Amino acid sequence: MDDGGRKHLLVEYAGLRLLFRGRLAVRPTGGGDGRPDPVPVFPLVVVLLMLAGFAVVSPIGGEPWWVSSVAALVLVAWAHRRSLLRPIHILHAMHPGFAIWVLALGVVVAGLAQGFLGDAVQDVVPATTSLDALLGIAVLSTLLANVLTNLSATLLLVPVVAPLGSTAVLAALLGLNIGSGLTWSGSLANLLWRRTLRRHGVRPGTAAFHRVSLTLTPISLLAAVLVLWAVG
């Protein structure tokens, strides 16, 4: 993770602690003794090993999905052995309909990127990596992510900014990751989280979500780009 990404995490952590200080001050209760339910050790270890695996496979040209797929299979097997889930639960967690929609959208955007849409983006991308240019790239990637979803916007924007160098690509990725959290539609993770909550009978409020996202996202994105420019 680059320094800009670390700065973003610090800003979001501080912001969330401040916005939800009232709720975080309440001690959670779980069992009959009033103490929180213990976190299962095995899943925690698998997640920690998965994070370490990302760092191991990256230098040797490995893909993150190799590690995450193995971790997912291990957790599914563990939960199935303990009768915590059934095959139908696995199917629901895969969100096949959502995956097909994302694939179709990506194909459409990739096609448009070879035509007028790609030309339009090329025309507005800055030609330098000054602070103003990096902020412009981050804002542009944020707008594209929230219109097209972050995955489709990545297919469109990253090839355009790649000739400017790694700093420009990182600025685009900051917008595609941090900036995509501005709206429900910007981030595929947000959409999946929302679908999962609804499936369990919880309906997250749109107003409450955007009150947090519109407060923290611009600040986090600005802080991350400033750090990227300073160290770049």
List the helices and strands and how they pair.
Elements lengths: L2 H17 L1 H4 L16 H17 L6 H18 L5 H8 L1 H18 L2 H9 L6 H18 L1 H12 L4 H12 L10 H12 L6 H26 L1
Helix pairs in contact: 1-12, 3-4, 6-9, 7-9, 8-9, 8-10, 8-12, 9-10, 10-12
Structural features, described:
This protein has helices at residues 3-19, 21-24, 41-57, 64-81, 87-94, 96-113, 116-124, 131-148, 150-161, 166-177, 188-199, 206-231. The protein is mostly helical. The protein folds into 2 domains: 3-28 and 97-231, no CATH class; 39-94, no CATH class. Helix 1 (3-19) runs antiparallel to helix 12, helix 7 (116-124) crosses helix 9 and helix 8 (131-148) crosses helix 10 (166-177). The two termini are 14 Å apart. The mean pLDDT is 84.
What global shape is seen?
A: globular
- SS element count, helices: 12
Structural class comes to: mainly alpha
Please state the CA-atom Rg, rounded to the nearest Å: 20 Å
Name the beta content range.
under 5%
Total E-strand runs: 0
The overall number of domains is 2
Main beta-sheet strand count, sense and barrel state: none
Uncertain regions spanning at least 5 consecutive residues: none
Distance between the termini: 14 Å
Helix content: over 70%
Brief rundown of the structure:
The protein has 232 residues and is mostly helical.
